[in-house]
Amino acid sequence: MESVAEIESPAREETVRWLTGVRPAPVLLLSGEPGSGRSELLLAAARQAGEQGAPAAVLRLDLAGFEEGPEGLVGFLSLWGQRHRAESDDRLAERLEKAADLASELPPVMASAILLSLLLETEGAVESLAGRDPLQALRQLLERLSATGRVILHVARSSDLDAVTRRRLLAESQSHPNLLLALSCDRRDTDDEVAPRAWVRRVSLARTPRTSDVLLAPLRELMGRVDFRAAELLGRFIDLAALCGENVPSDLLMAHLEVTQEEREQLLDLIDEGLVEDEGGHLFLDLQYGHPSFHGLLTYSFVTPALRQDLLDHVPPAKRKGLAGELLSFLSERIPVATRGLAHLFLSLADHLDDANLRRPYLRMLDWWVSPGDEGALGLSLSEEIAAGRLDPKTVLEVVSRTAGTWPPPHRLALLAAVEGGSPPGQLQSCRGDLLYLRAVILREMAKPSEALEETRRALEVAEAAGASPLTGGLLTLSGILSGDLGDFKEARRRFEQSLAVHRKVFGDAHPAIAACLANLAALHRHMGEREPARDLFAQALTVARETQGEEHPFTQALGKALEELGG
User: Fold this and answer.
1) Chain center to CA of 150
2) What is residue 3's predicted lDDT score, i.e. its pLDDT?
3) Which residues contact 29 (CB under 8 A, 6 or more apart)?
4) Binning pLDDT at 50, 70 and 90, where does residue 2 land?
5) Which residue has the higher pLDDT, 421 or 34?
6) N or C terminus: which one in the chain shows less Cβ crowding within 10 Å?
7) What does each C-alpha distance from 116 to 37, 76, 112, 192 come to in angstroms?
8) How far is CA 133 from CA 103, 137, 373, in A?
9) What's the count of helices (H) and strands (E) in the chain, helices before strands?
């Protein structure tokens, strides 16, 4: 952690001016890299402002690890306890126990997580908030906190807040003159991506790299005790870990490194003994399999953001970009972005590629990843953005497509309704086929195959008018799947064959989409008990997949297993 003396004086003075203003702009953006001293700057500025007659209390709002679901708040609190080492601090342990009691009465939504985070910071009276709606309880707590003096709510990472929650906190800051918001954001985030520009004061912090010897000496000493292969793997693991952001899902990195089981065990032993348990080289917290954002994955967390940034300083920019691109591609092919934590992992990797178009989809996902019950408010907001020309409907459709199987159907349907309700006629017509296709996919997820098939039929009318395209092929595939769901296997086969023909016209014979079409036909024949044609089609699909995706790709391996099961 950086000392007050190390914090940039101009940035601190700018923050003090913000705090001592008669009615300062309600939002302060602390722009910079993790580890640049944003929390320390805010605390130092608050002390200095207090000395000038404008005291303010700083409350840190950290939502790391919050995910919706039945165990969402339990996992959030458990992670807080591990990160703050509550097991060795009786005061924190008692505070955590009270928060856990309250959590059992709250729904697993973001407002509840914010309420619990603030209670953990303030040692507030939990009993008076029990049994209340979390939004009502949060408003009451914010009103109480700001009643006796100025309070700064410091959001540790602005991307942790979804759009609806951020808007609510902004509204609270307008209602309570003593309540100010400070949001730590990435240097690439623009003001209006975080809050209305007129409400914002921005302070930018540059980070000064620290002396490398203190940091790297324990690592070098550890590598010197093992053989060349183990040292090489440890070095590669550390480089990848630094690219991942706050959390390190080690199982995913091991898979990317293609280590053997023996090498995996040796590498984990090295990390645990030399970088977790050894105070001299303490780099990671070992979260075991308990991180709520990385279900079933052995996960480490960096002790401090500054430490991770120090490690990154020793990876040349070109190498950093290459490693991040390879890992992002590897993960994108193998795991869905099924949690907020995974979205932040993908965003961290995209940040190293210096391409706004690669990082923007993950920012959108985090921004629109609202809790159940907030879909309507989000949809209304997005509809207004689209109607005003500030948001491209195709951007919304891309997020709906990316979140298939992750966000619940009502959430994604609300986004489609926003596109339909806010788009001007010309824009709506240009994306109508995609919109109908996505709605059909969602209706199938909701076990409504007849309604989904009708949406597919309408979408095909739009798509076929424009000629052969990937959309037309995708709709024919979906039509085949839905026909199979309804028991019409003859129609399913006809649609799958049409889809194959369209995809061949668009892509030729060597493309992953061709392998998928052949696999669909093979699976249909297998389902109908026709083993010979199924085996032949799986063999064709496997040949194309090997050529276009490689032997190690999960889809290629799945095709090989299917063929093997049929005796091929």
Assistant:
1) 33
2) 42
3) 158, 182, 183, 185, 189, 191, 194, 195, 200, 201, 202, 203
4) very low
5) 421
6) N
7) 25, 9, 6, 28
8) 12, 6, 13
9) 26, 8
Count CA atoms within 13 Å of residue 138 on its CB side. 22
Tokens of 125: 């009276």
Q: DSSP letter for 303, please.
A: S
- Would the pLDDT of 131 be above 60? yes
For CA atoms 365, 115, 153, 345, give the dihedral sign: negative
Distance CA(64)–CA(246), nearest Å, equals 9
The more confidently predicted of residues 356 and 370 is 370
Distance, in Å, from the CA atom of 320 to the CA atom of 513, rounded to the nearest integer, reads 32
* pLDDT score of 445: 95
Residues 6+ apart with CB under 8 A from 441: 404, 452, 478
Percent of the chain surpassing pLDDT 90: 67
Which residue in this structure is represented by tokens 């014979």? 509
CB 73 within 8 A of CB 113: yes
pLDDT digits (tens, 9 = 90+) for 240-299: 999 999 999 999 999 999 999 999 999 999 998 888 865 556 889 999 998 999 999 999
User: Higher model confidence: residue 496 or residue 220?
Assistant: 496
Residue ranges of alpha helices (H) inside 338-469 are: 340-351, 356-368, 375-387, 393-402, 409-422, 425-445, 449-464
What is the amino acid identity at position 336? P
Query: Do 339 and 77 form a contact (C-beta atoms < 8 A)?
Result: no
Q: Residue 6 pLDDT > 60, yes or no? A: no
CA dihedral 100, 106, 110, 111 (to 10 degrees): -110
Q: Give whole-number Cα distances, 294 to 250, 262, 336, 383, in Å.
A: 10, 23, 12, 33
- For residue 140, what pLDDT band results from cuts at 50, 70 and 90? confident
Q: Which two tokens stand for residue 79?
A: 């992670």
Q: Mean pLDDT of all residues in the chain?
A: 90
Pairwise CA distance, residues 330 & 474, whole Å: 24
Residue 127 tokens read as 């009993």
Which residues in 372-391 are b (16+ Cβ under 10 Å) and which e? eebbebbbbbbbebbeeeeb
